[in-house]
Amino acid sequence: MAVIPSATEGQLGIGFEARQAQFERAREAFSPSTDKVASADSMPFGNALRDAISAANTDSLAAGRMKEQFAQGLNDDIHGTMIAAQKASIEVKLVSTVRNKIVDAFYDLWRMNM
User: Fold this and answer.
1) pTM here?
2) DSSP secondary structure letters along the chain
3) Which of 7, 37, 47, 53 keeps 20 to 30 A from 63, CA to CA?
């Protein structure tokens, strides 16, 4: 059976910093206070949503691996395991909430009388 290496604190921080940079780019692209209009190729909402889903999936898989390692006794970092699991849970909830809001907005627009 292959041993899966555990994620270090630095590796977990790298993913957070990358998502923070994505958030900043998306906020700049969609901010109404900017004088320039965001071009279609700068950071469309679809790409931002796809990146968020991908990040949530990656963190969820990493948390699952850490849980398996802890259960097998290969990793004794209960705090890191629980933090990774909670972080993945929060990201999945965030993505599902955004998805639900988008679907609700679509249905509201669909039901509008012109």
Assistant:
1) 0.57
2) -PPPPPPPHHHHHHHHHHHHHHHHHHHHHH-TTSSSPPPTTT--HHHHHHHHHHHHHHHHHHHHHHHHHHHHTS---HHHHHHHHHHHHHHHHHHHHHHHHHHHHHHHHHH---
3) 47
